[in-house]
Write a structure and sequence with these properties.
Chain lengths: 114, 223
């Protein structure tokens, strides 16, 4: 993965608009956060292979970046995005890595299931 | 360490075998005991990607699979089974199916000892669910066929509630193997391995004790 280049990410978001795509969306603190710091409230969520269609996708912010996808009947949102990659299967992989390089958030779009 | 007929190790993630138990496993292998390691997932949802990141959410499983094979080779495990479950989902599987899966491994291998996690005291939901399925599979066996269960616990309340571990193995004789196994899981341990080695260089007593002592609780099944 490489640090987000907003223009490149925007072009990728445009490429997947207005068609059926598969979404992986995830936030995580890791399963050990509350074990290491008992005052920490552990939370996280992920969805893998949600079939969606968005009419408008944008990357915003000055880094870490935010991503918003406007659906016909709703929204997809992620913040803290630092890195991106278009892999060998032409899938758009976006991720946010924290200050130690650990993954904190991921948003991925593909024309075929992950 | 008592000589075993067959050891079965059951953990959900690549690297679970390295931290708390690789010294014990290596010692059993040196004693000539056959060892099977059944690893339920490929740690697909791990957060560590290397720093700077050298993998991503989609390549992580492939990299961790290789790391798992490397670690098993270093420890000397000849029978490594990857069971094909997905990270962070073990507790949501059909429990009966999971127990039967564990039961079929036990039937096939007839282990005299199983090492797994102590359900309820192993922090990660995958650890607890794996340990629970293993314990339930053993409970279903006739008394005389049950292998011993040596379980790993490390939740903050484990000593308060379970008491001190009844088994402590000093694995200093195989320390190099253990450190190499931990380092084989490079994507996950890169950050901590550097710190570990710096502490070892200055003979940090806590780090030495953490690596040298492997502790287990014997799980006793009622009736």
């Amino acid at each position: 993965m490489e640090p987000v280049i907003p223009e490149k990410v925007q072009a990728e978001l445009d490429r997947f608009a207005n068609q059926d795509v598969f979404l992986h969306l995830e936030t995580t603190n890791g399963a050990y956060a509350a074990h290491k710091d008992q005052s920490f409230f552990n939370s996280g969520a992920y969805i893998r292979n949600a079939l969606i269609q968005y009419e408008l996708g944008k990357v915003t912010g000055i880094g870490p970046y935010r991503i918003g996808l406007k659906l016909n009947i709703g929204w997809v949102y992620a913040e803290g995005i630092t890195h991106f990659e278009v892999d060998d299967q032409e899938r758009l992989l976006l991720a946010g890595h924290d200050y130690q390089g650990k993954l904190a958030v991921a948003l991925q779009i593909s024309k075929t299931p992950f | 360490m008592e000589k075993e007929r067959q050891l079965l190790v059951v953990f959900p993630h690549p690297d679970d075998e390295a931290f708390g138990v690789s010294g014990t496993i290596a010692t059993h292998i040196n004693n000539g005991t056959p060892v099977t390691y059944a690893c339920l997932t490929l740690g697909e949802m791990g957060r560590n990607m290397g720093d700077p990141p050298f993998c991503n959410r989609e390549t992580l499983p492939l990299i961790r699979k290789q790391e798992l094979q490397d670690s098993a080779n270093i420890i000397g495990i000849k029978d490594l089974r990857m069971l094909g479950y997905r990270d962070k989902t073990i507790e949501f599987e059909d429990e009966e199916k999971l127990i039967n899966h564990m039961g079929s491994l036990i039937d096939e291998l007839n282990p005299s000892l199983i090492i797994s996690f102590y359900p309820g005291y192993a922090v990660h939901p995958d650890h607890d669910a794996t340990g629970r399925a293993v314990v339930k599979a053993v409970e279903r066996l006739p008394k005389e066929k049950r292998p011993k269960l040596h379980l790993v616990a490390f939740s903050n309340n484990c000593i308060d509630e379970l008491g001190e571990p009844d088994i402590r193995h000093d694995v200093s004789a195989v320390m190099d193997t253990k450190i190499a196994a931990i380092k084989a899981h490079r994507s996950q341990t890169q950050l901590m391995a550097t710190e570990m080695e710096e502490k070892l260089k200055v003979n940090d007593p806590d780090m030495i004790a953490w690596l040298q002592n492997e502790r287990f609780w014997t799980y006793s099944i009622k009736n």
